[in-house]
Design brief:
Blueprint: H1 2-44, H2 50-57, H3 63-66, E1 70-71, E2 85-91, E3 101-106, E4 111-115, H4 116-126, H5 129-136
Antiparallel strand pairs: 1-2, 2-3, 3-4
């Protein structure tokens, strides 16, 4: 019986560790993307277009962990604040210790993990009605 309990604990621990590693790798890939975007902004004065980000995404270390990247460059303009969400990806984890949420890249290059409720509230504050309509199609 003790062997079964120890085995179950080990399996749960390994699953949680794997999810923690995946989350860390997704964040690292987003940080790399942030550096590239900041350099592009410095060189050209604006954020890169989505086609540019799509073309470099597969070369980011850990890009597989990013999953489906949502890039909001179309909605960024000169009035956007540094804390505006530029890119994000949702990460869902079935583990007990690592909860689901979003890896978020801000316009100023900061990358952070946000829980789902906090992210959805912030994004709703930043989205225009046009962006919401476009995403619903």
């Amino acid at each position: 019986m003790a062997v079964i309990v120890i085995t179950a604990i080990a399996v749960v621990a390994m699953i949680n560790f794997r999810d923690w590693i995946n989350r860390s790798e997704a964040r690292r890939a987003m940080e790399h993307l942030g550096k590239i975007v900041l350099k592009y902004r410095k060189d050209y004065g604006s954020v890169p277009p989505e086609t540019y980000v799509t073309s470099i995404k597969e070369n980011l270390k850990g890009d597989v962990r990013l999953g489906e990247l949502q890039y909001r460059a179309l909605w960024i303009d000169t009035d956007s604040t540094p804390d505006e969400i530029l890119a994000y990806t949702e990460k869902n984890y079935p583990s007990l210790l690592v909860s689901g949420g979003y890896v978020v890249l801000r316009l100023d290059g900061r990358v952070e993990w946000m829980d789902k409720k906090e992210f959805k509230t912030l994004l709703a504050q930043q989205q225009s009605p046009e962006e919401i309509r476009m995403l619903q199609k």
